[in-house]
Structures are given as C-alpha cells and as structure tokens.
Amino acid sequence: MRVVADTNVVISGLLWRGPSRAVLDAAREGRLELFTSSELLAELAEVLERFKFRERLERAGVDASELVAGFASLAVWAAPAERETVVLADADDDAVLACARAANAEWIVSGDRHLLELSSYRGIEILSPATAMELLSGHPP
C-alpha cells in the first residue's frame, strides 16, 4: 500500500499515541509504504519548530530536526513534477496531492478537513488515520 501522510498526521504520530501513530507504526512494520517530498519535509520541519510543540518535544527529549530526520528515513522520496491548484482554501494541501500523484499513492492519510472533504483525488483515496487503519486491518468502517 503506497501512502502519503499529511503533515498533521506525521506530527500527531510522532508526538502522541493513537491512529496517526498506528499509521507510522504500520510503515515501520512494512504493512504500508510512506512517501514524502522535499516540500512536505520542509513543512514538517517548520511546523515542529512552532512554540506550541516546544514543551512536547522537550518532554520527549528530542528536537525537531531529529524527528524530521527520523521520518525522512522511514519514508520514500517522491519528486513531484508539477503542483496543481486544487485546494483553494489551503495551498499547502496541494503539496500533499502533488506528492501522492508523484508517488502513485493509493491513499492520502490526513486529518485536514479540506483534504478529507475531497474524499479522493485522481483515484487516490483520502482517508482519516482511523479509517486508514481500519481498512489496513481488514475491518472497514
């Protein structure tokens, strides 16, 4: 299963337990293949540096660059050739779509309402982390 995880899923999975963590664990276990791009990694680094995550990172004993490097080593690199304007309300979401297209992904896993409202993009299903894990485990929602 070829998957692109949105930045919100990656951060949630790196810093907390729950369905987003299960998505990252499934990649670590080889049950799915995560893809990322330079633009998504840059967004991950920028978001993790925000003040609201500082205390959580300190409690975990890691810094943002360590988490970004760890995720980069877990994911496969995809190089989007082009980026369409699809999500007018949030241009960052278009980077997720471009990465998924370049990776020939089957799923985008996101907690972002703009992406979830699309439900699919060019044949790529857009799922919440909980739904993705239910489908992966063979228990459809």
Short description:
This protein has 141 residues and is an alpha/beta fold.
Task: Please explain how this structure is put together.
The protein has 141 residues and is an alpha/beta fold. Helix content is 54%, strand content 13%. The chain has helices spanning 7-15, 19-28, 38-48, 51-60, 64-74, 92-102, 113-118, 129-136; strands spanning 2-5, 33-36, 76-77, 107-109, 120-121, 124-127. It has a six-stranded mixed sheet, with helices on both faces. Strand 5 (120-121) and strand 6 (124-127) form a beta hairpin. Helix 2 crosses helix 8 and helix 3 packs antiparallel against helix 5 (64-74). It starts with a strand and ends in a 5-residue tail after the last helix.
